[in-house]
Amino acid sequence: MEDSQSIAATTYGNVIAVRAGEENDPAIQALIEALESDEVKAFMEETYEGAVVPLF
Higher model confidence: residue 48 or residue 8? Predict the structure, then answer.
């Protein structure tokens, strides 16, 4: 288990990458909003019990 501030946690965090010019696409913005929601954060914390740490 990694601390949220550890080198591994900050180095191997997931990112959302899009093609240049598509940053403001409504579908991309909806995906980001959903992935960074309180519901997803709670799911990660409850399901993975600290093995997966939300960094948002």
Answer: 48
**DSSP secondary structure of 10-47:** HHS-------TT-TT-HHHHHHHHHHTSHHHHHHHHHH
Per the structure, how many domains does the chain have?
Answer: 1
User: What's this model's pTM, rounded to 2 decimal places?
Assistant: 0.68
Residue 55 domain-assigned (yes or no): no
Compute the distance between CA of residue 31 and CA of residue 34 in angstroms, rounded to an integer: 5
Average pLDDT, the chain: 87
| Segments forming the whole domain that contains residue 21 | 7-48
Structural domain contains residue 16:
yes
